[in-house]
Write a structure and sequence with these properties.
single chain, four-stranded mixed beta sheet, 14 helices, 4 strands, about 50% helix
Length: about 290
């Protein structure tokens, strides 16, 4: 066995199969409603987002992998894909091979996670990024136009202008309407992402799911699922605090246009930042040195 393939943990067949089964059952609970809607051509502005915005397909999320440094006894490498090898200890990931092939991407993600973790969390945006995405648009023009805005387009625009926009996340900013972009405190770009990303940002914390699946199979499937679960909860707050009225879907609004709503939003944002910090650290710990 080469050093590159030497595992640091060995799972017997009963244990790794139980982990795989538990992961599949957990993910199936999220997938089933989405797949049912997809079959009938339905759409959900909250629940479908993680499957349409991100590139990770449902079948990929469901597929279990143990992460780097784990050997699986009585396993077949063909079950796990091209990056797995049979060794004396059991089937294990060719960690060095994966890292060599994806070195640039892995290091880019690691640097972003480290930079984000090293900054204080800023909690004063109050979800205005979603409002900036509909700023000065009519009901027919907004992205989720099957759902009404809570306020008139004029009042929605006034809230954006009164509160200002303090978005540090490029992948939110790029969806701003053209007249909203000059209102933002920053002008984030892909090139400045490492300099701007901060741990209080809902979208930065939602993106932990993206970094987890892009780091797969170096990180275990359970960690990818943990990041997905957090992203799913964050998306719920994101849309409850948005200008859309989704009360008919069971999402009461967080009225960030009011002091009470802003306090509710900031408290939830702080809780998500704390949970995301743990997941961010776990992702960094899972990456082989």
């Amino acid at each position: 066995m080469t050093a590159a393939l030497a595992p640091t943990a060995v799972l017997d067949a009963a244990r790794w199969r139980a982990r795989r089964r538990a992961h599949e059952e957990r993910v199936d609970a999220w997938l089933a409603p989405h797949l049912a809607r997809r079959r009938r051509g339905g759409k959900h502005p909250v629940e479908d987002f993680l499957f349409t915005y991100y590139s990770h397909r449902p079948a990929q999320l469901r597929r279990w992998h143990p992460g780097a440094g784990v050997a699986l006894r009585d396993a077949d490498p063909a079950e796990f894909g091209r990056d797995y090898r049979a060794t004396a200890a059991g089937v294990t990931l060719d960690t060095e091979g994966v890292r060599a092939r994806r070195a640039e991407s892995v290091e880019w993600i690691r640097a972003l996670l480290v930079a984000t973790a090293g900054r204080p969390a800023h909690l004063g945006c109050f979800g205005m990024h979603e409002w900036a995405m509909v700023y000065r648009q009519t009901q027919a023009e907004v992205r989720h136009n099957a759902w009404p805005l809570r306020l008139s387009p004029e009042r929605t625009a006034a809230v954006v202008e009164e509160r200002g926009v303090r978005c540090s996340h490029f992948d939110a900013y790029r969806f701003f309407t053209a007249p909203a972009r000059p209102l933002n405190l920053l002008t984030p770009t892909r090139e400045t992402q490492h300099a701007h990303e901060q741990p209080g940002c809902l979208h930065a914390n939602m993106d932990l799911y993206k970094w987890a699946y892009k780091l797969s199979p170096l990180v275990p499937a359970e960690l990818v699922a943990d990041c997905f679960e957090l992203a799913r909860e964050i998306r719920t707050l994101d849309m409850r605090a948005s200008p859309y009225d989704l009360s008919d879907l069971g999402y009461p609004p967080v009225r960030v246009e009011t002091p009470e709503g802003r306090a509710e939003y900031a408290a939830a944002q702080r809780g998500f930042a704390d949970r995301a910090a743990v997941l961010r650290a776990r992702l960094l710990d899972a990456l082989p040195a």
